[in-house]
Task: structure prediction
Amino acid sequence: MKINGETKLIGFFGSTFKTSKMYAMYNAVFENLGLNYVYVPLVVNDIKKGVKAIKALGIHAVGVTIPFKISMIEYLDELDEDARRIGAVNVVVNKNGKLIGSNTDGHGGVRALKEKTEVKEKKVILLGAGGAARALAFAIKDEGGRLTILNRTVSDAEELAKSVGCRFDGLEKLAVIVEDTDILINGTSVGMAPEIDQSLVDKIFLQKKLTVMDIVSNPRETKLLKEAKEAGCQTVFADRMLLWQGVLKFKLYTGVEPAVKVMEKALQITSH
Ligand code: ATR
Result:
């Protein structure tokens, strides 16, 4: 990597600096494509000043994660349709001094699903109605999936379902509708370390024809995905969603289609 007077800076606003593989992923592709960008962590203590600094320092773009995805919105100039509907951003691009927020989480998730199954016209159950589920719900609907949102707090499922335009219910409905479902997604935090022995889905409901996806990335193979594999289901790991939301971000950062294989290698992930 050669830094010179033309190098464009892309920063990362978040709280997972030390463990993130995103630095390796983006910088590997910049190098591979000969693009004069560098991707670095930026420690933000005050989000309002942090957003001002994007303009003041001429930072080309920033990736955004927890805890700033929602809180930085009020300081941006514009939101694209996904960011507006979801109510959160995971990328901000500085277009000639105008800060435009976008969100690639949902469509990244759908791209990950589509590596294993069509989504259009498929019956999809999405468990959860929090931030992650929200992003996925709109993207699944955009793709033509026939979506039902199930959540422990039914009023949250209802609110999200009304904005998306789909069905909703409580988690207990899973037992009734899962038989007639093609795709099952855990969009909740259940199963995340240290509670790795938990799953919202009893394994008796995991029939072979299902494609099962989990947004929990730690552990990579959650209890749900392990049991789904054992039942002969297709499985979609959360790191594929991470990869694809990054691919979509890369296009927003640079306007260039990234080399997905190089990103995959830098992330050290596979689709199995
Ligand atoms: P995120 O932004 O990561 O999606 P969140 O907004 O806190 O996190 O949402 C967490 C989701 O996991 C919610 O859908 C939550 O259900 P509630 O709306 O009922 O709180 C769900 N969730 C978390 N722990 C759960 C549990 N033990 N059982 C069922 N659902 C759970």
